[in-house]
Type II secretion system protein GspE N-terminal domain-containing protein (Novipirellula caenicola), 169 residues
Amino acid sequence: MSSHQLITGSVAAAELVPASVAYDNHIVPLRILADTLIVAAESPLTTETQQRLHFILNRNVRGVTRTAEWIAVRLHELNNDQPELDDADVGVTWYWPNWHWCDGDQLNVKCSGWEGSSHWSGCAKFPPDHPDHDMWRWIVSVRPYQRLVDAKEVPSIRRIWNRYVARCR
C-alpha cells in the first residue's frame, strides 16, 4: 500500500490534484466515487470553489469537512514536505500563534519546547526588520495555524507563504 493510499484512501485521487491546487484551495483528495472526486475541506465547499475545481480537475467535486489542523497535516504528508527527523535532534520547539502580542511594531509569539529533559518557554521576537516579520503576521492571522506550530513545520509554511505572496502580486 502506498503512502498516498494510506493518507487519502486512493492513489488515483491523490494523483488527480496537483499540490499547488490542494494548497491554494486547502483541500485534501480522499477518493473517487463514480465520476466524482471527494475532497476534505475545512468548511463546506462553496459553489464557486466547486466550479473552479471542476474546471481545473475536469471532474465533479464534492467536499466533506475536516478540521483545519487535519487538513494541514495531511497536505504536508501527502506532498512529502515534512522535514525528516534527525536522530541527533533531541530538542523540540513549538510556536503558539494564538498567543501573540505587539510591542509597537514588533510582533512577539509565545514559544516553548524541550531540550533534553528540560522544558523552557519564552517568546520569539519579530521586529519590522526581521526577514520573517510579515510571514509571522500572516501566520497569526490565518485559521489553519491557530494551533501549536512545530518549528520543523516553519520551512513548509514559508513555502506556502511565498506562494501566497507571489499570488497577491
